[in-house]
Amino acid sequence: GIQEKCGQCGINDTIIKPINPNTLYEKLGQLIDPDILGIAKKTIDLNTIENQYIPHVAGLDVRRGLLGMGNNSQLYLNILRKFSVSNSMTASKIAELFELRDFEKARLKAHSLKGECGHIAADRAQDLSKQLEQSIKDNNEDQFKIHIDQLDTELQKLCAAIGNMLETIPEGMITNPVDTELPLMLKELKMLFETRDPRVFDMMDKLGNSDLPKQEWEKLSELIGKNETVSVLQMIEELLHKHG
Question: Where do the H-state alpha helices sit in the chain?
Answer without folding.
Answer: 2-8, 21-31, 34-37, 62-68, 73-86, 90-99, 103-120, 123-137, 141-166, 181-194, 200-208, 214-225, 229-243
